[in-house]
Design a protein that fits this description.
Pathway: Amino-acid degradation; L-phenylalanine degradation; acetoacetate and fumarate from L-phenylalanine: step 2/6
Enzyme class: transferase
EC number: 2.6.1.5
Radius of gyration: 22 Å
Shape: globular
Strand order of the largest sheet: 1-8-7-6-5-2-3-4
Structural class: alpha/beta
CATH class of the largest domain: Alpha Beta
Subunit structure: Homodimer.
Strand content: 15-25%
Catalytic activity: L-tyrosine + 2-oxoglutarate = 3-(4-hydroxyphenyl)pyruvate + L-glutamate
Bound molecules: pyridoxal-5'-phosphate
Helix content: 40-55%
């Protein structure tokens, strides 16, 4: 048995972490990264250690840093590609380099590949398992993002273990754990073969074209905003934006920035803090394009109002037009 159906990809990740790591051991997770890895691991008494991604290289993993985090208690490395919150897609060479680190230290990989099909034109996704015969890889994915159906709770683990390194225990553990909740959503299980086989290609093309158009619209708009620096995404449904906080002296953190943005402009972005990455915020680019443009417009007005340079100019202009009565 090589495929285990789960209650969403979150449940798939939960089973993998539980099966591979013991209390007191550690797993390595990306920074910035999806918060559920930490939540799941720490709930089980498993420690987490973060490895750094490099925004200036399209959020590639800092491989030296990854390697430096590995110790004798490291039970697994979680790799999230394409990434939430970064929208990055790793090149084939980079994927090979990651596999090389795992192979040298004999560490299995939990691959969170829920965005595997969500790559913009011109970019290619390379699954970890397609590029290695030796590293054991538990690949996690599901219907949630590709079919835009978070409530259907259908995900899976695909076990790639050509050398039988995981042996019977890990397979058995995954199977036992998957039966604790008496399987995943049975209605969707019944529909799964038809969903995967009969969905017309136009559906996928349409979703990806929309996301790509939105990412470009958002990037082009945010690029021009004083004090912000967007990082262009290659896939998934997010864009990370650097906030040059010293330009906004009223705010001490990304959290304060997004809270005021919500209060003043009713635009909600998650602060980088949610992904263990201060001084950034994450934009979700799935909203209709007119709303997305309106949101970017409002972010621009907000930034111009609070940026120390543009705010000063506005103040000076306003003062210049005031009639002083003497
Ligand atoms: C959304 C998401 C998941 C979990 O999705 P489910 O709704 O549990 O299927 C897992 N990993 C990442 C990176 C996600 O963005």
């Amino acid at each position: 048995m090589d495929v285990i159906l789960c209650s969403g990809c979150s449940c798939a990740l939960d089973l993998c972490i539980t099966a591979l790591a013991r209390r007191g051991q550690n797993i390595l997770i990306p920074r910035p990264g999806f918060s559920i890895y930490r939540t799941l691991a720490e709930g089980l008494g498993i420690n987490v250690k973060s490895y750094e991604l490099r925004p200036e290289l399209g959020w590639e993993i800092d491989l030296d840093n990854l390697e430096s985090q590995i110790d004798e208690s490291t039970a697994a490395i979680i790799i999230n590609n394409p990434s939430n919150p970064c929208g990055s897609v790793f090149s084939r060479d980079h994927t090979l380099d990651i596999l090389d680190v795992a192979a040298r230290y004999y560490i299995p990989i939990i691959a969170d590949e829920i965005y595997e099909h969500m790559v913009f034109p011109g970019r290619t996704f390379h699954s970890l398992a397609s590029l290695s015969r030796e590293v054991p890889i538990l690949s996690c994915s599901g219907l949630t993002k590709r079919f835009l159906v978070p409530g259907w709770r259908m995900g899976w683990i695909i076990i790639h273990d050509r050398q039988n390194v995981l042996e019977k225990e890990i397979r058995k553990a995954l199977q036992c754990l998957s039966q604790r909740i008496i399987g995943s959503n049975t209605l969707i299980q019944g529909a799964l073969p038809a969903i995967l086989k009969n969905t017309p290609q136009e559906f996928y093309d349409d979703v990806m074209k929309t996301l790509h158009d939105h990412s470009r619209a958002a990037y082009n708009c945010v690029m021009k905003i004083p004090g912000l620096k967007p990082i262009v995404p290659d896939g998934a449904m997010y864009m990370m934006v650097y906030i040059d906080l010293p330009c906004f002296p009223e705010f001490n953190s990304d959290l304060e920035f997004v809270q005021r943005l919500l209060m003043e402009e009713s635009v909600f972005c998650l602060p980088g803090q949610c992904f263990d990455y201060p001084s950034y915020m994450r934009l979700v680019i799935t909203v209709p394009v007119d709303m997305l443009e309106e949101a970017c417009q409002r972010i621009q007005e907000f930034c111009e109002r609070h940026h120390y340079k543009t705010a000063e100019n506005t103040l000076r202009n306003n003062l210049a037009t005031v009639d002083i009565p003497y």
